[in-house]
Write a sequence for this structure.
């Protein structure tokens, strides 16, 4: 009974990731790559993403402190962040990456700073939710992910 | 899934022992390396991963050949444009597909003209990969 309740909670949590626009179809693509031999693939990729992207976010933070801003460098960092964000299906983070790059194109320092603040917010929100989700999945044990076509 | 297997098995593989299609993933991003490796593996495609264009050249110089090369564009040391040009100059005629998060209208013409057979915008999905494999198959039949 308790296990069923946990499974329902996992399903609800998973659905909210989509309903809140935090992840998109690409997340489902990753789930479909999980099997008995790779039961935690999505969590492994997410962990890799947060490790890799935290370095990029730090670099962008540093670059945004310099004056004048090097928009080319900023765009390059953001292109990398966008690449991995879109690959794990981080929908809102990806949208903010695009917004930031638009501000780089027009050379708007204020726009870059503002959109980066928003990006970090979305990034943090996703991280919190997704870590909680995977924690619950781990609690449920093997074969208890709520993977289903959305 | 039967159609998928037919598509994969229909291509003459470079590995005579396993008769599997072989692929080289050229990408500096670890997240994408991991995902693309798993994607290809899930379709039964033997694959190797390198981190930039120069490593792709080196692995070919060591004598390895691949049915399919998934080439990222923006990489350190040697980018995808230069690597593609060099591979074509070396006489590599196998399928090279550009895979980047740049959209089609974001100056990828130079990349295409370097010698790509196809271009796919990231993220790669199963359906994009199957479309790529059809090209590999068509090329093998020519």
């Amino acid at each position: 009974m308790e296990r069923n309740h946990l499974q329902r909670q996992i399903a609800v949590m998973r659905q909210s990731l989509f309903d809140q626009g935090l992840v998109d179809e690409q997340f489902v693509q990753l789930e479909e790559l999980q099997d008995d031999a790779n039961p935690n693939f999505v969590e492994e990729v997410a962990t890799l993403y947060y490790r890799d992207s935290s370095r990029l976010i730090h670099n962008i933070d540093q670059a945004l402190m310099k004056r004048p801003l090097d928009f080319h460098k900023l765009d390059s960092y953001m292109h990398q962040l966008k690449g991995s964000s879109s690959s794990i299906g981080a929908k809102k983070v990806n949208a903010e990456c695009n917004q930031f790059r638009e501000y780089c194109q027009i050379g708007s320092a204020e726009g870059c700073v503002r959109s980066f603040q928003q990006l970090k917010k979305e990034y943090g929100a996703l991280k919190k939710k997704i870590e909680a989700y995977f924690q619950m999945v781990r609690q449920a044990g093997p074969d208890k992910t709520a993977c289903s076509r959305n | 899934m039967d159609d998928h297997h037919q598509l994969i098995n229909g291509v003459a593989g470079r590995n005579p022992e396993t008769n599997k299609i072989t692929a080289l993933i050229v990408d500096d991003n670890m997240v994408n390396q991991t995902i693309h490796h798993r994607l290809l593996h899930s379709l039964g495609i033997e694959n190797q991963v390198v981190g930039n264009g120069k490593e792709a050249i080196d692995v070919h110089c060591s004598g390895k050949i691949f049915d399919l090369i998934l080439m990222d564009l923006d990489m350190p040391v040697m980018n995808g444009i230069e690597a593609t040009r060099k591979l074509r100059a070396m006489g590599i005629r196998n399928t090279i597909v550009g895979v980047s998060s740049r959209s089609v209208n974001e100056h990828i013409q130079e990349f295409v003209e370097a010698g790509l057979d196809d271009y796919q915008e990231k993220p790669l999905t199963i359906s994009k990969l199957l479309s790529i494999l059809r090209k590999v198959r068509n090329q093998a039949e020519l």
